[in-house]
Q: What sequence folds into this?
C-alpha cells in the first residue's frame, strides 16, 4: 500500500483522493507542471512518455478532463486508448467494472477512470496492477481538478497560504469543491463556503477542513464574502445528481456572477470555475480581468502531464 507520509516517490502510485498526496508532493507536481507549459502549448516537443499507453475509461460525460488527459499524454509522446461512452464497450453486455479494469490493466500503463458511483476509483485501484487516477467518482473526489486549481491559484496569486478563497454554488454535489477545500486548508488558505439552502458543503468535508486547522465561514449570502475574496470559485448546480427534478428546479438559477456583482469585489479578485457553466457566470464576465476560468481549463494539460510523468517514473 502506497503511503505518501513515508516517501516522496510517485512511481506506480494510485491517485484516488487528494488525501493521497502531501503538501510537498502537490508542490512537486506544480513545480514540474511549470516546466511542462511550453510543451502543453506546442512550443516544445517531448518524447518523455514515448511507448507508454494511457487508458481513459469514462462512464460519465466529460470534455475538459478527458481531452486534457489525452492531450497531455500525446504531448509527451504517448498514446491513448479507451472509451467515452460505455455503451460502445462490453459494459453494454453486462461486463462488471472489475473485469473492465482487469482488461484495461492488460492493455495499458496507466488508467484514468471517471465513474458515476463514489468509491469506484478505489475499487478499480484494488483490481489493477497499473496505476489508477480518479477522474471523478460521482459526488466524491476529483483530485486532478484540485491540482490544476491549486496550480492556477499559485500562478495567479504567487502563493496560496493566507489567500481568501470563497467557494460558491452547489457544494453538496460538486465533487471539485470537496477535494479542493481540503487541499486549500492544507495550504493554509482562508475558506468561505457559500451555497443555496440545501446545497451546503457536506458535514464530513467541513469536519475534515476543521481537523486540518481551518475554520470556514459558512453562509448562504455571497454579499457576506465578496468584498474580501481573492478567488471566487464558482460551481454549477449539479442537475444530474438530483434524484428529484422538482428539488433541482427550486435551486436552479439561485445565483449569478455578473459585472454588477464584481463591482463589489477587489480589482485583483479572480473568478474560477471547473466548467461547464450554465447560467452561474454571465458571459459578459469573460472579457473582464476577473475571468480566470479559461486559463484554468488550459492548466489541466501541464498539470496532468506532470502527474503522469511522475507516476510513470519518467521524471523525479
A:
Amino acid at each position: 500500500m502506497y503511503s505518501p507520509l513515508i516517501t516522496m516517490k510517485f512511481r506506480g502510485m494510485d491517485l484516488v483522493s487528494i488525501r493521497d498526496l502531501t503538501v510537498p508532493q502537490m508542490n512537486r507536481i506544480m513545480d514540474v507542471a511549470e516546466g511542462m507549459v511550453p510543451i502543453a502549448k506546442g512550443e516544445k516537443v517531448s518524447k518523455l512518455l514515448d511507448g507508454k499507453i494511457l487508458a481513459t475509461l469514462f462512464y460519465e460525460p466529460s470534455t475538459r478532463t478527458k481531452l486534457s488527459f489525452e492531450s497531455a499524454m500525446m504531448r509527451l509522446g504517448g498514446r491513448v486508448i479507451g472509451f467515452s461512452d460505455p455503451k460502445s464497450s462490453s459494459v453494454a453486455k453486462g461486463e462488471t467494472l472489475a473485469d473492465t479494469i482487469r482488461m484495461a490493466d492488460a492493455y495499458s500503463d496507466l488508467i484514468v477512470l471517471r465513474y458515476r458511483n463514489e468509491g469506484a476509483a478505489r475499487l478499480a485501484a484494488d483490481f489493477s496492477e497499473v496505476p489508477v487516477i480518479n477522474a471523478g467518482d460521482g459526488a466524491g473526489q476529483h483530485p486532478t481538478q484540485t491540482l490544476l486549481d491549486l496550480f492556477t491559484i499559485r500562478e495567479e496569486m504567487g502563493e496560496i497560504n493566507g489567500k481568501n478563497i470563497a467557494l460558491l454554488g452547489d457544494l453538496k454535489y460538486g465533487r471539485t469543491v470537496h477535494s479542493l477545500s481540503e487541499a486549500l486548508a492544507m495550504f493554509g488558505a482562508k475558506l468561505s463556503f457559500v451555497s443555496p439552502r440545501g446545497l451546503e458543503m457536506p458535514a464530513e468535508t467541513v469536519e475534515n477542513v476543521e481537523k486540518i486547522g481551518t475554520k470556514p465561514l459558512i453562509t448562504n449570502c455571497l454579499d457576506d464574502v465578496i468584498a474580501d475574496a481573492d478567488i471566487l470559485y464558482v460551481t454549477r448546480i449539479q442537475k444530474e445528481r438530483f434524484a428529484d427534478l422538482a428539488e433541482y428546479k427550486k435551486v436552479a438559477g439561485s445565483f449569478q456572477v455578473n459585472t454588477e456583482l464584481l463591482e463589489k469585489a477587489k480589482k485583483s479578485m479572480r473568478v474560477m470555475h471547473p466548467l461547464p457553466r450554465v447560467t452561474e457566470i454571465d458571459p459578459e464576465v469573460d472579457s473582464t480581468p476577473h475571468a480566470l476560468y479559461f486559463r484554468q481549463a488550459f492548466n489541466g494539460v501541464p498539470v496532468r502531464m506532470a502527474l503522469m510523468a511522475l507516476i510513470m517514473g519518467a521524471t523525479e
Strands lie at 53-58, 79-83, 110-115, 132-137, 164-168, 190-194, 217-219, 231-234, 270-272. The chain has two domains: 18-141+299-311, 143-297.
